[in-house]
Write a structure and sequence with these properties.
The complex is a heterodimer of chains A (about 550) and B (about 375). Chain A has about 550 residues and is mostly helical. Among the domains of chain A are: about 160 residues, no CATH class; about 60 residues, no CATH class; about 120 residues, no CATH class. Chain A has 29 helices and no strands. The longest helix of chain A is centred in the first third of the chain and has 25 residues. Chain A starts with a helix and ends with a helix. Chain B is mainly alpha-helical and about 375 residues long. Chain B has 16 helices and two strands. Chain B is elongated. The termini of chain B are far apart. The chains are: A mainly alpha (about 550), B mainly alpha (about 375). The interface between A and B is large, with 68 and 67 residues. Chain A: This is FA complementation group C. Chain A: InterPro entries: FANCC. Chain A: Pfam families: Fanconi_C.
């Protein structure tokens, strides 16, 4: 508490000096400086109010002798008043200081001063600067009628002028002036016009604080920009795009950790990133960020799911995009083979189920050929192709399922694909190990009664590299075999938290795919849903303890 | 129902008084009570604004209130409502009654300190406010924010103090049309009285500019369905004024020779042409007027030009400018103007030589060709 009061006192002097220096913010420097400090100023004013609200005038004056100067100067600075909640807090502060029963001249004068300041903030008739036309006064209208209309007309007229090239209007100055006003809904047409204007200047005209501010407000859902305005913003200002992508990631991975893929889809579509990514330069940047996330987390299941769902949303947006500017697929994945792109892009929904295996074999063939050709080429190319495959990782999930449903004519091909998915390198060594593991799992089909120990025996392997692949196959087994499902829950509980959440993530992905593709799997689907519910509760409980 | 109507009347009185020096007798209780009424009536407005018999009854009572002389004692205002007490309360005004009241009290220097203190405490979040009252402080703050926003952005439109401000004019035009509609709803024929008063009260150039702007406002995009409630923050935006909001204004203008004459004389010619192009009746009236005035011009041989007998009246230059703009306007105005020119010239005698008929010289000056099939 003492620390707080100390901070506020020190800050008071700082902010008073600032207020004096800013004046009424008529010069470019003062305007830029105000815009830089607006968020902190609001916090400071909030603190001041928290202190003032328990005080009357005399106590307040003793605590902050220069409070009058500060409030007075700030009230005459339209940048300060126009920002977010400053005007509200200043009003509250003034209301605190008003004396209810003035005893002496000083208090009377303070009251008069407060009243005039409030009138200045709110009313039009005392201004005398032709602000409210004589016509409006004659009609008997005052501020509540007048200002909303005036602002709307200003905004409309300005946004018209912006879009006309020959108008000598200073867009840079305008963008600066809009910074405090970003969250005011009346300004929206102006923001849109500024963002979508395509001039012939080579450099960016709008000030970067403006662009940052717009992006921030958009990410916090304080303004509702149109898709084209957001696209324009991200094309002009790279930091905004990066921030938006990271914000989405954070939402999906940290804040909404237990979001199902369906919920993820909603978040992703809301963020407007898939739609914007139809523009290849934006796609490449977003993809770069995904790549880094993948590397940093060593390719955890959550990140893989995010990439998968995002790609699905992107493909939907791409196919829906009716613009003439439809870019060739190669521009999104420039370092990979076009035939691979085409074959991965195939939506399983558009293929009859019986043909999935065949298609998987095809994918496998193409990938194998590319991979085996890499022996003389760089590692980079290998990872590019692997990364591409990750985008369409749904096919890997289908491969695992097909393997367990015994529909594969040549399980070796599908196994190779799955192994590549989890470990793009070290191919030859792994092949035998994976085949052995697969064999073990297939043996589980016949074993009754099945016990958790049997499952643990399978996963307890001396080959740590293929652990994840084994778990993936095992999970499919548990969901699809009649005996497996009985002990699924029991088994998962015995795993570590990390592995359990990986398995849950897999289950979520599987049910998402089944729902999307309309796969008829009554019992497994119900099982999967039950498992998810129970185990999510369980993991949340264990996090508490 | 009767109770509601009573409270409506009380509140209308209270609102009127809040802006006059009679508020000097108000104390805390008076302020609290009036805010209470305002809040209550705002809820009423919210519930019944989508038409309905209750709304009609309320509007009827408000109408009758206006016709009553203001109960202000010794210095009762004359028949015209006193501008300081604000426009007569309308049903829509109930939607922002609290703000109007608060602003009225704030601006009233004669309100005693304890009373104002009571008001100010209710603007704070911790004030002794009931939960439903919290909006007032927020709404006033929004107003302050919008005012600051206008202050920041208006200079960008580039109009200096000497030039007329198009945004201001447009806003005033919208407010004028709003007020006209409110008057018309109150009592048919009241619009004309209002316009007469404004014509007397305001400086002519200003008034004419606003009238012109109002007549040029784009028509509404079709009347909105009853299901779409008007925006609460902006009651009576032009879009729900209906298909012909400016009709009463036009009717008034056409029936009053003095304003019409001033319009034709003072309004910049291109603007006059836009107006005439938009409203055919107005075009006809203007052309008639111009023909009438042109009759007062005679040719001065010493100066070699057409001059008017009345120094305040129409000049040759004005006549020419008006017709030039009319002829350059899109059809049907240009056609109308040319036909007028031709027929006037024919009426004068159809002369070819200069100096004999003002219309001949006008046609010559404008380079208007003979329409094919004549001559």
């Amino acid at each position: 508490m003492a620390q707080d009061t100390l901070d506020t006192s020190l800050n008071f002097e700082f902010w008073l000096n600032k207020a004096v220096a800013w004046g009424q913010a008529t010069t470019l420097e003062s305007q830029q400086d105000v815009c830089l400090h607006l968020p902190q100023l609001q916090k400071f004013l909030q603190q001041i109010y928290e202190t003032l609200k328990h005080m009357d005038f005399h106590t307040a004056i003793q605590r902050f002798p220069l409070i009058g100067q500060l409030l007075g100067r700030l009230c005459w600075n339209p940048f300060v008043i126009g920002y977010d909640e400053n005007q509200k807090i200043l009003m509250w502060c003034l209301c605190c200081l008003y004396c209810s029963e003035p005893w002496n001249t000083i208090e009377l004068e303070v009251n008069i001063w407060i009243r005039s300041l409030l009138c200045h903030l709110l009313s039009s008739s005392k201004l005398g600067l032709n602000e409210v036309g004589t016509v409006s006064q004659a009609l008997g209208y005052t501020s509540p009628d007048y200002y909303p209309k005036l602002l709307k007309n200003v905004s409309t007229l300005l946004s018209i002028k912006i879009s006309i090239v020959k108008h000598r209007i200073n867009r840079k100055a305008m963008s600066l002036l809009c910074i405090p006003l970003l969250t005011l809904p009346d300004i929206l047409p102006l923001l849109e016009a500024l963002l979508t204007y395509q001039g012939d200047e080579s450099k960016e005209i709008l000030c970067s604080e403006f662009l940052e501010g717009v992006n921030e407000s958009f990410l916090q859902k304080k303004i509702a920009l149109s898709e084209s305005a957001v696209l324009s913003l991200w094309l002009r200002h790279l930091p905004s795009l990066e921030k938006a992508t990271l914000h989405l990631f954070e939402n999906l991975i940290s804040r909404h950790r237990n979001a199902s893929p369906e919920e993820m889809e909603c978040f992703i579509k809301d963020s407007l990133l898939p739609q914007a990514a139809c523009h290849p330069s934006i796609f490449r940047i977003v993809d770069e960020i995904f790549w880094n996330a993948l590397l940093e987390t060593n390719g955890t299941s959550e990140v893989l799911t995010v990439i998968q769902v995002f790609t699905r949303c992107f493909v939907q947006a791409f196919q829906k995009n009716n613009d003439q500017l439809k870019f060739p697929l190669k521009s999104y994945f420039p370092y990979t083979s076009p035939s691979l792109i085409m074959v991965l892009l195939q939506n399983p929904k558009d293929l009859p189920r019986g043909l999935w295996c065949q298609h998987l074999n095809h994918i496998s063939e193409i990938l194998k050929k590319i991979v085996e050709d890499q022996s003389t080429q760089s590692c980079r190319s290998l990872f590019e192709h692997w990364f591409l495959f990750i985008h369409f990782g749904e096919w890997a999930d289908i491969a695992a399922e097909e393997l367990l449903m015994l529909r594969a004519e040549s399980p070796a091909t599908l196994l190779w694909l799955l192994a590549f998915y989890y470990n793009p390198h070290d191919q030859n060594q792994q092949r035998t190990q994976t085949m052995v593991a697969h064999g073990h799992i297939m043996k589980l089909f016949g074993r009754t009664p099945l016990s958790v120990k049997d499952l643990q025996d399978v996963t307890d392997t001396r080959h740590p590299r293929i652990q994840r692949l084994i778990r993936h196959l095992l999970l499919n087994f548990l969901l699809l075999s009649p005996d497996g499902y009985k002990i699924a829950q029991e088994f998962i509980i015995t795993q570590t938290d990390e592995i359990a959440s990986e398995l849950l993530n897999l289950i979520a992905r599987i049910t998402y795919r089944w729902n999307r593709l309309g796969v008829e799997t009554q019992r497994p689907a119900k099982l999967a849903k039950d498992l998810l519910q129970e185990l999510q509760c369980y993991t949340m409980k264990s996090e508490f303890l | 129902m009767e109770v509601l109507l009573e409270q409506l009347e009380r509140f209308a009185e209270v609102l009127a008084v809040s802006r006059t020096r009679h508020a000097s007798s108000w104390g805390r209780v008076a302020v609290r009570r009036s805010l209470c009424w305002a809040r209550y009536l705002r809820h009423v407005h919210g519930r019944f604004r989508l038409r309905g018999p209750v709304r009609a009854a309320l509007e009827g009572r408000l109408r009758r209130l206006r016709l009553r002389p203001a109960p202000l004692g010794g210095d009762a205002a004359p028949a015209a409502p006193c501008p300081e007490s604000g426009p007569p309360l309308s049903f829509e005004g109930l939607g922002c009654g609290e703000q109007l009241l608060a602003l009225g009290l704030l601006e009233n220097a004669s309100l005693p300190s304890p009373a104002l203190h009571e008001l100010l405490q209710r603007l704070r979040p911790e004030g002794p406010a009931e939960p439903s009252e919290e909006g007032l402080g927020n709404r006033l703050a929004e107003l302050a924010r919008r005012r600051a926003a206008s202050q920041l952005l208006r200079p960008l439109l580039g109009s200096g103090p000497a030039q007329p401000d198009p945004v201001l004019r447009r806003t005033e035009a919208e407010l004028l049309l709003l007020r006209l509609r409110q008057e018309a709803e109150a009592e048919p024929g009241a619009e004309a009285l209002l316009l007469d008063r404004l014509w007397q009260q305001l400086p002519q150039p200003r008034w004419l500019a606003v009238v012109a702007e109002a007549l040029l406002l784009p028509p509404a995009p079709g009347p909105r369905g009853a299901a779409c409630a008007p925006d609460e923050d902006d009651p009576g935006s032009p879009s729900d004024l209906g298909p012909a909001p400016a009709a009463p204004l036009l009717a008034w203008l056409l029936s009053r020779p003095a304003p019409l004459a001033a319009l034709c004389r003072l309004l910049p010619a291109p603007l006059l042409a836009s107006l005439a192009g938009r409203h055919a009746d107005l075009a006809e009236a203007c052309l008639d007027l111009l023909w009438d005035w042109a009759g007062h011009l005679h040719f001065d041989l010493t100066k070699g030009a057409w001059v008017g007998s009345d120094p305040e009246g129409l000049t040759w230059e004005r006549l020419r400018d008006c017709f030039r703009c009319f002829c350059q306007a899109p059809a049907p105005l240009s056609l109308q103007a040319r036909i007028a020119l031709d027929s006037c010239r024919a009426r004068d005698g159809g002369f070819e030589a200069p100096g004999l008929s003002v219309w001949t010289d006008l046609e010559r000056e404008l380079g208007v060709e003979e329409p094919p099939g004549e001559g």
